[in-house]
């Protein structure tokens, strides 16, 4: 009983070749794919910051407004709506 027959080796090599080809295409077209997947989202995670221990701060954009979320396992969750700076340059 042969475990590694030529047809099995060719099948595995072909499968690995297809995987490498798909990986290369995705790496090459990463930015357009990410932009296409991000369209129409109402909630976007802008930044995260670990505050130490089990607390963290999240900066979210929800329907055009910026929200600061501070959450911890024992301290609960706090939401703060941040003011929009219309004339500020980034």
Automatic annotation (TrEMBL):
According to the record, the segments passing through the membrane are: 6-26
**Record-given protein name:** Flagellar biosynthesis protein, FliO
Q: Which organism is it from?
A: Roseovarius mucosus
State the UniProt keywords alphabetically: Membrane, Transmembrane, Transmembrane helix
């Amino acid at each position: 009983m042969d475990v590694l027959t030529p047809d099995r080796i060719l099948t595995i090599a072909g499968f690995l070749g297809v995987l490498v080809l798909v990986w290369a295409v995705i790496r090459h077209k990463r930015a357009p794919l990410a932009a296409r997947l991000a369209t129409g989202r109402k909630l976007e995670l802008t930044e995260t910051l670990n505050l130490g221990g089990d607390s963290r701060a999240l900066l979210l954009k929800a329907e055009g407004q910026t929200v600061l979320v501070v959450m911890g396992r024992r301290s609960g969750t706090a939401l703060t709506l941040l003011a929009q700076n219309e004339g500020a340059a980034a």
